[in-house]
């Protein structure tokens, strides 16, 4: 009957387990940096009228630290990012719309739509490039 020495196999398994733990720990740091960088890039790219959109951009990290969601909490954030089609605006609670520069109250307004002003997608694109480079370096060093 053939006899096998598993000492080397066990040694390699332990090295892989140690490297995996180190890669995971370093990856959490990269994810955290990427999340914060994404917010910073988006805030720099976001158009500023009142500053509300820019101030509403934030990040939430997953419980395990290996993922995140970043974006605005301002309800119109997607309209700025992607633009809007022409649409009709009607009053919700009153009989007419009015604003300080209006000549008279209006029953409806034909809005021409807005052009997209991307700020999140370019921020994610830039942060993703940095993330990929950092993770590649971690993996090269680990194995």
TrEMBL record:
Name of a matching Pfam family: HK97-gp10_like
Higher taxonomy: Bacteria, Bacillati, Actinomycetota, Actinomycetes, Streptosporangiales
List the protein's name. HK97 gp10 family phage protein
Domain of life of the native organism: Bacteria
| Record organism | Sphaerisporangium siamense
Q: InterPro entries recorded for this chain?
A: HK97-gp10_tail
